[in-house]
Amino acid sequence: MSTAVRVRGLRKEYPGHVAVAGIDLDIRQGEVFALLGPNGAGKTTTVEILEGHRRRTSGEAAVLGEDPGTAGRAWRARLGVVLQTATDAAELTVAETVRHFAKYYPHPRNPEEVIDQVGLTAKAGARVKSLSGGQRRRVDVALGIVGRPELLFLDEPTTGFDPEARRQFWTLIDGLAHAGTTILLTTHYLDEVEALADRLAVLARGGVVAEGTPATLAGRERAEALVQWHDERGTHQEHTAFPTKLVTQLSGGGRELAGLTVTRPSLEDVYLDLIGEKP
Ligand SMILES: Nc1ncnc2c1ncn2[C@@H]1O[C@H](COP(=O)(O)OP(=O)(O)OP(=O)(O)O)[C@@H](O)[C@H]1O
């Protein structure tokens, strides 16, 4: 599988401050890759460099085979971008806005279909100005995908969405990924990462502190499990690296254990541990 994004030693310094301290990343074509990290970790800076919106101080970057610092309009048309800050609310309607943006691209998607996909058909004739925050965010997403991007950047795309809108959005992203779109997602929602991402990297203090799949990040699948059950003497709990063995012993080969649960660290536990904020 070929590489959509390749980054080596990427560094960004602001006066008196290192925002990105030399990171490496490889994002394969067709995968959904999530970038996680606390506020100020360097996610937006990294993404903006890859989008060609910000200059790097040093290091190498190749996005769809080109250097984002020098690539031109044809390259830009292959990208879809949903920035963290919402598009300025204009006097135009939703349909007018999406149709207008579609004209910037050589092979745009059908604007009406895109509006439908982001769940805004009922609001197609409404002025963007009159929409709620979550609905405007959906317009942003529509504008990000109308150009049929090969690589889609989503910077905190579901902030302000209600739970139903988030689910719809996940379905939409899943569909795009299945159709072969590479997606780079930054988010603070760990359930979003578990639902969507093939792989993720955790950024903290400008560096990558862990990289892996949501299920195996930082040895999560090998971490000790907590086994809980109760009997006439009360509730019991035990930490073990071998929960299957423990449960087999406890159940004496088939006796039912009341209230049995086996839990491993959640992605959130692992994440908080990695960024050094575990309570
Ligand atoms: N234009 C700028 N000038 C100076 N410092 C900046 C500039 N832009 C960002 N920074 C600093 O660089 C660091 C990384 O910021 P960045 O926006 O990349 O973080 P982030 O991981 O996206 O955070 P968030 O989760 O809050 O969006 C922060 O300390 C920020 O204050």
Automatic annotation (TrEMBL):
PROSITE patterns: ABC_TRANSPORTER_1, ABC_TRANSPORTER_2. It holds the Pfam family ABC_tran. InterPro entries: AAA+_ATPase, ABC_transporter-like_ATP-bd, ABC_transporter-like_CS, ABC_transporter_ATP-binding, P-loop_NTPase. GO terms for molecular function: ATP binding. Keywords: Antibiotic resistance, ATP-binding, Nucleotide-binding, Transport. Residues 5-230 form the ABC transporter domain. It is a peripheral membrane protein. Its main location: membrane. It is found in: Cell membrane. This is ABC transporter ATP-binding protein. It comes from Amycolatopsis ultiminotia.
